[in-house]
Queue: 2 jobs
Job 1
Amino acid sequence: MISRVLSADLPAHVGERVTIAGWLHRRRELKSVTFLILRDRSGLAQVVLPAGAVVPFGEETVLQIEGLVTSNAQAPGGAELTEPAITQLSGPAEPPPFDLYRPVLAASLPTILDHAPTTLRHPVLRSGFEVAAASVAGFRAALDGLGFTEVHTPKTVGSATESGANVFGLDYFGRPAYLAQSPQFYKQAMVGVFERVYEVGPAFRAEPSDTVRHLAEYTSLDAEFGFITDHFEVMAVLRQVIAGMAASVTERASSAMELLGARVPEVPAQIPHLHFTEALELISSATGEDVTGEPDLAPAHERWLCEWAEREHGSELLYVTGYPLASKPFYTHPDPARPGYSNGFDLLLRGTEIVTGGQRLHRHEDYVEALAARGEPTEPYAGYLQVFEHGMPPHGGWAIGMERWTALLTGAANVRQVTLFPRDLHRLSP
Amino acid sequence: MISRVLSADLPAHVGERVTIAGWLHRRRELKSVTFLILRDRSGLAQVVLPAGAVVPFGEETVLQIEGLVTSNAQAPGGAELTEPAITQLSGPAEPPPFDLYRPVLAASLPTILDHAPTTLRHPVLRSGFEVAAASVAGFRAALDGLGFTEVHTPKTVGSATESGANVFGLDYFGRPAYLAQSPQFYKQAMVGVFERVYEVGPAFRAEPSDTVRHLAEYTSLDAEFGFITDHFEVMAVLRQVIAGMAASVTERASSAMELLGARVPEVPAQIPHLHFTEALELISSATGEDVTGEPDLAPAHERWLCEWAEREHGSELLYVTGYPLASKPFYTHPDPARPGYSNGFDLLLRGTEIVTGGQRLHRHEDYVEALAARGEPTEPYAGYLQVFEHGMPPHGGWAIGMERWTALLTGAANVRQVTLFPRDLHRLSP
């Protein structure tokens, strides 16, 4: 291993000769002195060269620099490297397409995405992915602590039952196959094996719409568990997980959040909740527009409800429960007390839905009935229904879209800003 | 939440009335007594009914049982439930296709896989997936501790550069696309951003061969990191990770390993290593067959070498280094001291290769030269090569196949036994 000190650790080595290594972030040639700013995974280090020193390296060249650590209150972290001996570990064959050292990268989003392997090096752009990684770590830690088992389910599947329209088709050894839109069937089946499971994996939606919050491929944070009485217990476990994710971001990515000027949401001990019908009544009486007959919430309604929750409950998070059965997938459990409504819920954060979940059907006969009520044959669902023939407990779960969560946490206007290499209607590379 | 005690915790509640819940694992109707054995995620519980009691539930029915916890040395864990009041939470509409309570499931592998949602409930089959989950947790914990960042890279890609033959083609909004065979390009690009990254995700190989160790879709445990001097440093970090995975299995899945009659390998402080040419010489002089001209190791050679490592070094693990460049992908770094050989390595465990890794090229001009030496144009690799135009440190990494690792740990003869829902030439469901 190149024996090196990370730039963030330089202050602990004042008076010693050490080696640092990283990318040439910036050259500053002043009258009386020349500075090199070196960037590594921990931050920036200042290296001092005599005035008029020739710097034969372009920005983004990888350098290894041996030198004396010297106190300087003006340097990042209060220490800099003097008397440097520089070894070049790479060229750049090309100057970088943008000035990565500027506080804000001066380029349009499409241009940033076209050059992602380079532009993601910008400290602000990179920060979003530190928040994502911290969130996923918090998701797993919370569920590990609750006795959940991690599973990895297949992404190539033989039938496109959940929603045939928006599914990617695949040539599977000459046979038709599809990319999984969600691990829904598999995670339910695994409740029969482990009772409590989660998965972090890709989900694929051939969404023909081009919006700031949809992707053709995203990372889904799924959980499913058994022996519940209703969806309120799913919501209680989800609250613990959301709190764990927020705490993990605070613990592991606070400097990233600071750089982004973003704030971790406070997760109240009880996230306020509203029934779908109450939500529509509130909106109707507040806006004067009668929306009580609507089958679903429009984005503007979700924004209004979040403002209401903030105002009335001081909460950035809000559960809306009991969506109409007709607007939910066939496996959604009905509300036994309220015909036509479901035990499904959404969790809204800062004006946007970030989690969809609920209680599922668990009896074979209820699946058969639910499909019949929608006028669908059971035959294409034979594989799905198999597991319910052999004893399944009452169960439920949810899916969190990692990129959408990260966008809301970091204040990104477009989910593509917090997706490493986004895929959409128009974009398949890099 | 159904307020319940897990079966493993019953002994702590002797003398109390509690509720347990789970699947009816077995009915035992004896002359003087009837037992119900209930299975939950923690194990088995014995429930005592009077002799001649009618049990109207078939195996795999989900039950909730309230009763008195009573000491009984003959019961699992030393306690059983008496005076039971039983609530049925599900049917089974159908009797299970197999007796899940028998120590070994009496069915062929294809039959087991066809009924996976049910057969995976068998405690022995389920155990393999507990070992897999513990291994992945150990993988992440080891790398988190070494400053690695977790990434999620796209699985739908615009070009099939790594090996065009065995790639799945996709209809991507009317354009051709492919399923990623590995995150190789993306993890290398991310070394330019985070220095040290890992990913746990699916990889897709349209392998037309049908063997006990190949899958069309598997879970790849990838890592890549920068600022190395050569592949021996990749091997040193990998040793720490393998040790972390083994320790995690011991910690989190020891009863699963016990049920499988399997043993966690000991990971020596230094895993022994052999150069590829030394390995061939050893085999040649031991077997009398001259294999020194071979371009790669055959499976029989790998088995022989592992026996040798066990005999000579007391190690179940062995590194083979320096494979011929011609047998390695174009991004493999050559051995500067030995023309024609590479800084690539394999890690063998119990006779089989479980990890492939090495140092990669990091200079743009070296990529151009390596492709020219293979007679390949650079044009299809333009996206890949872009990142090397802007400064990349010397770096390397590896990929571990999760299912193959789990099969070797648990002694599964076929990798499909430890794959939740395997995908191969013939199998695309359930």
Note: The CA atoms of residues 230 and 414 of chain B lie 35 Å apart.
Job 2
Amino acid sequence: MNFLIFVIETIHNSVIMKQILTTLALVLALATGLQAQELANFARGNQKPVISPEIVQDSVVFRLKADYATIVKLSGSWLPNPWTGTIDMTRGENNVWEVKVPLPEPEIYTYYFVVDGVAVNDPQNVLVQRDGTRYLPMLIVPGERTENYNEAHLHGTVSHPWYHSDILGMDRRLTVYTPYGYENSPKKKYPVLYLLHGAGGDEEAWISMGRTAQILDNLIEKGLAEPMIVVMPNGNPGQAAARTLNIPEKQIDWRAPENRELYVKSLCTEIVPFIEKNFRAIPKPASRAIAGLSMGGGHTISASNLYPELFDYICPLSAAGGSTPEQIATLKKAGVKLYFLACGNTDFLFNGAEEMHAKLNEQGLQHEYFVSEGGHTWANWRLYLNTFARKLFK
Amino acid sequence: MNFLIFVIETIHNSVIMKQILTTLALVLALATGLQAQELANFARGNQKPVISPEIVQDSVVFRLKADYATIVKLSGSWLPNPWTGTIDMTRGENNVWEVKVPLPEPEIYTYYFVVDGVAVNDPQNVLVQRDGTRYLPMLIVPGERTENYNEAHLHGTVSHPWYHSDILGMDRRLTVYTPYGYENSPKKKYPVLYLLHGAGGDEEAWISMGRTAQILDNLIEKGLAEPMIVVMPNGNPGQAAARTLNIPEKQIDWRAPENRELYVKSLCTEIVPFIEKNFRAIPKPASRAIAGLSMGGGHTISASNLYPELFDYICPLSAAGGSTPEQIATLKKAGVKLYFLACGNTDFLFNGAEEMHAKLNEQGLQHEYFVSEGGHTWANWRLYLNTFARKLFK
């Protein structure tokens, strides 16, 4: 309503005013996506605001206004079979469909409605995460587990610089987090975590689904992690940036023997120098960490094998390790301050993680093996970041 | 499919492999939002990919797969009555609903489907803009008008630093664009454009709907605009950041006489110094521009009246001017290099712009009066930015 008041205060002319009020009603209708009948109801004051989701003690209520739908269902990522299971919603007053379900354990979940067979986002929920090309509403269940996933009081800066890759033949977009205070301490230098996404992800995956900024902001504010820079590159070698930017992908065979390591080479010989030139980064192995999930865990392992001297902190997450005994021995010799191997106990790559754990033991490379409940999920990857970030650069 | 190949290459164990393939099918189903029956069809190869939107010569085709819907319609921002008018779509093979409509004039439009009365985004379209709390698919119609709205070859950096406001009592998020080359020219200093959104917007409005990064990237790459920094603050004084971050708003009466100018004061006495301290900005009036649309046009006028010495470039867009003759005289005396007043000829604030134009003439303040076709729309605000950005700092 600020706008209305602003306009009223600014223009003192009753003819213009009438025109403005009529147009504002239409602008309002447009801005809120109301249909004509809804607008009329709204104008008559018949419309109660729809609240969704609403946590009520041990339950959560989801609501959707759907005037002409036949069947409305809820699909949630915490359901036993999230890709097939849906829960029926019930039509109530004013065609607001509703369902009340038990509140799941503290974590971040996604959900959507299915209206006559079509997936629909919750128009009432401002909390949205982007997964590849989809935007999905979030349900954040409060608790100790999710405490660091909410906004902290002091915020770091998230930026999207572009680096030039001679190796991949294009300019490519990065996501970079610099901690709170970076701008105000122009002489301070920081260690850097390179944080890699999995297949289907891009340079926005960790910042959106992984809650990287929130986790680091909270850990640093509480004194639980060292202030650090976090660099999140795009791990798809043909992509200049997330598909949402609509830049055509470079179509070459990235799996061919001569091409398959190009991204990791660009990461280690182009991105690392770019960051150390353009940010106040400490350019030493003891101030460099690399971590990645799934495909990014593979990239983490490849990078540590190709450039064993580069990173002193190595964290493959939910990945199957392909290192040879020789590679592990080389890495051990190069010096590792932390090797943090994590996997969910029902992850389809769990056996691969077990194998890697055994190989590291065989070669006597000291490491932390962190096994969590559950599978190949962002719930686990957030937990891993919230865990290993406290152990870096100490 | 990279992921599949990666896993296959990484793990050489057929039991694990079988488990992986089964799980991958489910992960794939989850990732693409397929239902069980669709998954079966997909596995049998029955599924043709749905393409939407598809521009075919002078038409554009929209498609949506909706198995159980009764009525599917298209709503588009280019339709004569975008808030009430919809076009019926027709059910085709495989329950893919389709409609072919004449291609509108080159511009960026938004649209959505209405499935049995409920608004649904196009799951096939990766081009999405955020309007307040809504994500809307875009249709970019190619042509001279939209040439600078697509990705350029050379990209500037978009970042989200936070500044501390004593005046508003909180840390607040900014969006900042620095031009291509900023990182590689550590001694070069740049002029700054402060670019303000309207009511209902936030610090992401200009970057998302306004295509600021694309427009500046293109203009600078073509040599049509000076390389400049663009600062996009949040103009809602109670908000620390866009509502998508879920930070509670400060609830005080921002319209009370003692509060109503607080945001503009924070902009001119806190944001400007923050930018000039933390970015390589030229700290002179001749290197500062201020522009804003609607409510932000009001902020632009207020800022130029409260601090007439601060900005040499002043661009109120689609706004009604409340300046007094004395204020305009003061501004003229302070020196203005460009006063760019723009409004659409069917804008509900057009009379206000006409009045401002007359007042500026009365006081002999030289200015450009740019009247475009159309109303209070992002189509106009993109056009204005694409126009006045070429005239700044020259």
Note: Confidence is low (pLDDT under 50) at residues 1-45 of chain A.
